[in-house]
Design a protein that fits this description.
alpha/beta, Rossmann fold, 3 domains, 7-stranded mixed sheet, 6-stranded mixed sheet, 11 helices, globular
C-alpha cells in the first residue's frame, strides 16, 4: 500500500459553488485515512502500558459490584471467566504488556506497580482478590496517580514504543472534594466506564474527551458480560494501534493555465495557496477507515483557459509497529481542472482532467454524511432531555428513525445498509433512554453520552445494550472479541 502504515487520499469533492462566479467559493473535500491490517505489518506487536483505575468506594459493595469487577479484571488479564469453574477464554492483555492497578476511595493507592504482566505472577491475583469496598469517591486522586505512573514510564527506554493508556471504572459520583475533570489527561488515552444507575456520565465523559482519543462507556447491568463488553473494544483498540500523532495538512492552490493562443505574456497566474491543518489524531487502530471533511475557500477563476486547482496533502505520523519507528513524512498531490467556457463557477469532482459536470456522491460518503447528521441529532436530543423536554427529544428521534427506515428501504443501496442498520438500532435504544424522566435519570443519560463519545472519536463503545446490537466502528476481529465477551453465561 502506498504511504506505509497510514495512507491519506482524496476520496471526494462535491460540485459546489456557494458564491457568485467571480467571488470566492466555499467548497468541501473529503479525505480518507486508511490503516494496514496488523497482520500485514512486520514486527506487529506494540505493547501496552496499562493502568486500571478502580473505584473501591462504599457503593461498590452494593449488589456485589466489586466482586463482578474483579471477575471482569481477571477475564481481561488472565482469560479467566469464572475462577475455579474451568471456563477459560483468551486474555485481552498479553504477557509482555505492562500493567498497574490503582484503587480510589477516600484516597488513591497504587496496589500493583507497573511491570510486565508475566512478572506479576500470582501477586496480581492476590491483589485483585483482596480489593475491598469502603469510603468516599476521590476520583481525582486516582486519576492523578495514574497519570503520574504513565509519565514516569517515559523515562524508561524499554517503554519508548509502548501504548500508554488508562481505563477508569466507577459506579458513582465523585465526592470528598474530588474534581477529576481538572486533571490534565491530554497526553494519554483515558477510557472511562460508568456502571450502575448513579455513575456521573458528565464527569466520566469529560475525562475521556479531554484525553487523547479516549471514549466513555455506559454499563447499566453490572454483570460480567456488560463489563467485558465494555472492556473488550477498548483493549482491542489498544492492542492494535499502528500509529500515533497523525497530522494532515492540505494545501489548496488555485490558478489559471491560459492557452497559448491567448497571446498573453503570463500563461500561468496563481493565487496565494491556502493551508489547512486538520486536528491531530493521537492514535490510529489497524484495519480501519477514517474520514475527515475539510472545508476551504477558493479564489474566483479569471481569464481564459483552464482553471486549475492543485491539492497537495502532507501527513506525518509515528509508527508504533513495523519498521517505521521514526517519524514518517508522506506527500500526495491531486490536480483538478475546470473548463471556464462551460461554467465560470467552481466545478468539482472526478480526478485529474477536464470536468464537465456534477459527480454522484459515492455510497461511502453519503453514509458518512448521514452519520454526521445523525450525531448532530443525538446532541440535540441530549440537550432537550437535559432540559427535561422529553417530548421534543422523542419527536426528533421518531423523525430520525423514519429517515433511517426510508434509507434502508431504498432498492439502489445508496448508503451502507450495515452502517445504517446499526444507526437504526442506536435510535431505538435512544428512544428507550428518553422514554420517561425516571428512565433518563437512571440510565438513559449514560446511553446518550456513550453514543456521542463513540461518534466523536469514531470508535466502538458499550452502550449498556446486553445484546450489543450497535456495532459501529467495528472491524471483523473486534466483532469476534465482542462475541467472545457475550458467550459468558452466569
Amino acid at each position: 500500500m502506498v504511504g506505509g502504515l497510514v495512507t491519506v487520499e482524496k476520496e471526494w469533492w462535491p460540485s459546489q459553488n456557494n458564491g457568485a462566479p467571480l467571488q470566492e467559493s466555499a467548497a468541501m473535500m473529503v479525505l480518507k485515512v486508511t490503516t494496514l491490517k496488523i497482520e500485514q505489518v512486520p514486527d506487529n506487536k506494540a505493547n501496552m502500558n496499562l493502568v486500571l483505575v478502580v473505584d473501591t468506594s462504599g457503593s461498590m459493595g452494593w449488589y456485589n459490584r466489586l466482586d463482578k469487577v474483579k471477575r471482569a479484571m481477571k477475564g481481561i488479564l488472565r482469560g479467566d471467566w469464572l475462577p475455579g469453574t474451568g471456563k477459560k477464554g483468551d486474555a485481552w492483555v498479553r504477557e509482555a504488556d505492562w500493567v498497574s492497578i490503582i484503587t480510589f476511595s477516600d484516597t488513591a493507592q497504587v496496589k500493583l506497580d507497573m511491570k510486565p504482566l508475566s512478572v506479576h505472577g500470582k501477586k496480581l491475583d492476590e491483589i485483585v482478590d483482596g480489593l475491598q469496598a469502603g469510603g468516599w469517591t476521590n476520583m481525582q486522586d486516582g486519576l492523578e496517580k495514574a497519570v503520574k505512573v504513565i509519565e514516569d514510564l517515559k523515562k524508561n527506554p524499554i517503554n519508548k514504543f509502548h501504548i500508554p493508556a488508562i481505563i477508569l471504572l466507577s459506579d458513582g459520583a465523585e465526592n470528598n472534594g474530588s474534581k477529576a475533570m481538572d486533571v490534565d489527561v491530554s497526553r494519554v488515552l483515558v477510557d472511562t466506564i460508568g456502571f450502575g444507575s448513579k455513575h456521573d456520565d458528565k464527569v466520566l465523559a469529560a475525562i475521556s474527551k479531554n484525553s487523547a482519543r479516549g471514549t466513555f462507556h455506559s454499563v447499566t447491568d453490572v454483570n460480567d458480560n456488560g463489563l467485558l463488553q465494555a472492556l473488550s473494544p477498548q483493549l482491542d483498540f489498544l492492542k492494535h494501534i499502528v500509529a500515533t500523532d497523525l497530522v494532515v495538512t492540505v494545501q489548496v492552490h488555485r490558478g489559471l493555465r491560459r492557452s497559448e493562443q491567448s497571446g498573453t505574456k503570463n500563461p500561468e497566474e496563481w493565487y496565494e495557496p491556502k493551508h489547512i491543518e486538520l486536528p491531530t489524531v493521537r492514535y490510529l487502530h489497524d484495519d480501519m477507515t477514517y474520514r475527515f471533511w475539510v472545508p476551504f475557500l477558493l479564489a474566483p477563476p479569471t481569464g481564459d483557459g483552464k482553471d486549475e486547482i492543485v491539492f497537495t496533502y502532507y501527513w506525518t505520523y509515528k509508527a508504533m509497529v513495523g519498521r517505521e519507528k521514526n517519524l514518517s513524512v508522506k506527500k500526495k498531490q491531486d490536480v483538478m481542472r475546470t473548463n471556464p467556457p462551460r461554467t465560470r463557477a467552481l466545478i468539482m469532482g472526478g480526478s485529474a482532467g477536464d470536468v464537465g459536470g456534477d459527480q454522484e456522491m459515492p455510497k461511502a460518503i453519503r453514509t458518512e454524511e448521514t452519520r454526521r447528521n445523525h450525531l448532530q441529532m443525538i446532541k440535540q436530543v441530549k440537550k432537550h432531555a437535559d432540559d427535561d423536554d422529553l417530548v421534543k427529544a422523542k419527536a426528533m428521534l421518531a423523525e430520525g428513525l423514519n429517515i433511517l427506515h426510508q434509507l434502508l428501504c431504498l432498492t439502489d443501496y445508496q448508503v451502507s445498509r450495515k452502517a445504517i442498520t446499526h444507526m437504526y438500532f442506536e435510535v431505538e435504544g435512544l428512544l428507550d433512554a428518553v422514554d420517561s424522566a425516571d428512565e433518563y435519570k437512571s440510565c438513559g443519560h449514560g446511553y446518550v453520552a456513550a453514543c456521542i463519545s463513540s461518534h466523536e472519536q469514531q470508535r466502538h463503545v458499550a452502550r449498556g445494550d446486553a445484546a450489543c446490537r450497535v456495532r459501529l466502528f467495528c472491524n471483523e476481529r473486534m466483532n469476534d472479541y465482542l462475541n467472545q465477551a457475550m458467550e459468558l453465561d452466569i
